Structure formats: C-alpha cells, structure tokens
Amino acid sequence: MSDSPDTPTPTQTGSTASIERLHVDGLTTSVRCPRKYELAHEHDLESTSDETAAEDRVDLLGGALCAALRTGDTDPDRLLDAATTALEERWNDHDERFHSREQRRHVRRVLDATLEAYVDRIGVEHAKGIDRLTSETNGEVIGPTLPLSSRVSLPESEAGDASVTLESTVDYLTADGRSVVGVRFVPTLAPLGRLRYRPEWEGDIEAQFHDHFDPEADVFEPGFVGSLFETAAVVDGLRTRCQQLGLENRTCRYVQIPVADRSQTTVNWVQESVDASLEVHDLTDRYIDHHTYGMTHEHRNRAVDDRLAAAVARIVDRKFEPETRWESISSASCPECGYSVCCQEYLASEVRFDG
Ligand code: SF4
C-alpha cells in the first residue's frame, strides 16, 4: 500500500461500475465469504441476521465518549460526567425494543458501567494524549468514525485498475510518546482469534496467516485474517492522515476497545448493579514484521499487504465464487450468515442435503 492525500467519502460500489473505492469492512466480509461481499456490497441486499443491537450500543457509547473527549477535560470525574450526560441525551432517542422496562434499565446500567470502566482504564490517558495532539495540529482528531484512506496498488488485475482507495475508520486519534494512535470502539475482540493472545507477528500469528492461504493446510481463519487486513488499512490510513496533519514524522498504531462484550461485565441482580472491565487491545505489534520494519522504518507487513492487495484485486475483478474455499465457508461462515435465503451456493447445498 502507498499513502494518498485523498479525503474519503463513503461510497457504495455499483454492480457494473469499476471499483475505485472500497471500505475495509467490505474487504473483511469477502474474506469470510466472497459471495457474501457480492450480496451485501454489490447488490446492496439487507442481511436477515440480527447483529444490530451490539452495533447500536457501540454507536451509543462511541458517540458519548467522543463527545466527552471533545470537552478537552482530563479530570476523571468531569470526563465521566460529560460522557454520562452525552449518553443520557442519546439514550432518550434510542429506540431499541426491550422486553420490559427492567431490561431497558439493565442495559442502561451496563452502558453506564462501561463508561466508567473506559474512564478508569484508559480514558484519562487518551484524553491527555488528545490534548498533546491538538496542541500540535489544527486538524480534526475526534470522531466518532473519523475517515481514513490509503491507496492499494493492485497486482495484475483483469479489470486493469492500477490502484484502489481503501477506506477505513477510527473513532479518535491520540498520542502515545512519538506514536499517533488510532482508536476504534468495537463490539468485542472475538474476531481477532489468535491476535488476541499472541504478542507479536513472528511465531504463531505469522504461521496461522500463511496457513490460512495454504490450500494444503486446512486452516480457515477469516476473522483473524480480516483483522490483520483492517490493521494494515488503518495503519496506512493513519500515515496519510498524519501527513495531512503535519505529523509525518510519527509512527502509527491501531488500538481496538471492545465496549459491547458481555463477558466483560459482572451483574449483581440483588443489588441491581453492574461492574464492567475493558481490554484495550493494540494490534500494531501483531501486524508489523520486523524485516519490513527494518527496511522501511514504517509499521508495515509485506506478507499481509501483498495478500490484502490480492484480495482487493479479486473484488475488483468480481471473483465472488467460493470455489476451493466452499467446504470451509459452508461450515464456518454459512451458519451465521444473514444472506443464506438469497445465496445460490447455500440453497444448492440445502437441496443436495435434502436429496
Ligand atoms: S450463505 Fe454461505 S455461501 Fe452464501 S453468502 Fe452466506 S456465507 Fe457465503
């Protein structure tokens, strides 16, 4: 990938137009199943799976926390007050259907506990980093959903496009020493797989990444590979953003913060209280390989970047057949796919099964 000064606007690819811009969410979907990418992003069909509740809560919390960070306050009590006030405003307009008032109250307690955990665990540190960053640049560093973009040079593509703009988003930027850190609120860290438990690229992460693409290895880890693609897109997009902000001498890092992970909450039903904890996860060291870093002095990974470019080229060439991946996709991706009712491969496999 190479840097670009482009400022992205979200675009939806059409079914016949050439693809010039692609969001990394679409790319990670194509890793789970290329047909799913086609149905969701080429044909713009709506998924029947119910993934929206967790996403909505991430939006609620992300919006409230970004509003609090925008106050510039680094005092923990005032930061939490600002976040709670911002959440209250959003909560009043939140139209999620609950089974009962008690359930609505419980969800609100979980959200409040998550705000508290964020401020305790990382919020003050990040607020101070934002303060340092804004003293050095006039550019926007707080979202939510700050757009990033970079250029991906394609390997030989049938469509002939030499490069595609790859879009991604973070919720805010903060400073950590000489690094600019892009932070994104996510529902959970579950998609990361081994990236969650290993500290660096060399070793198990590198091995699993190569195995995923090895037809002999019988390994299919789309969440893990998609997360590495996302990290590559965000880190490259951050480099572009740093150039725009006059911060080009910084290294870039990518951090995810899960804010809708039920395993991180403890409920006391008698006292009607909720405790939450937060795991702040830096993906950068899991992504960079030290060989490429030694050559470029930038946070890059040649193997990931090359596979990412090849995956983008397949989308540009509209190669959406599961092909040799069908066995893995049918067991790992189909069971929770919201497009099965309109998917030719899935319907054909059901007919074979019934017959
Ligand atoms: S049902 Fe299976 S094959 Fe069809 S789009 Fe979904 S994941 Fe892909």
From TrEMBL:
Q: Where is this region: Disordered?
A: 1-23
Compositionally biased region (Low complexity): 1-16
This chain's protein is named PD-(D/E)XK endonuclease-like domain-containing protein
Q: Which organism is the protein's source?
A: Natronorubrum daqingense
